[in-house]
Amino acid sequence: MKSELEGIIKRLIAMQDGSGTIKTRHFEKDGEDLAKVTYDEDNKVFQVDEIQAGESYKFDNIDLVAIEIYDILGA
Questions:
Q1: Cross-referenced Gene3D superfamilies, in alphabetical order (predicted)?
Q2: Can you identify the CATH homologous superfamily of domain 4-73?
Q3: 13 φ, ψ to 5°?
C-alpha cells in the first residue's frame, strides 16, 4: 500500500530542491484544484492556500505542510 503522505512530501522536497526563489505547485483531487502551495526559498517558508475555504497558512516544517495538504485533500 502506497502512502499518500509520501507522495506529497516528495513533491514538497522537489520544490525545495528546484531552482528559483519562489516555487508554486497545485494539489488536486478528482480534477478539482484544492490547494496551492508556494515555497519561498529566501525565507525557507511554505505557504498553503486552501482554495475552497479562502484560507492561507504558513509553515517552516515540511511535515506540517504535508499533513495540512493531506487534510485538505481529504485523502
A1: Protein of unknown function DUF1797 (3.30.720.20)
A2: Protein of unknown function DUF1797 (3.30.720.20)
A3: -65, -40
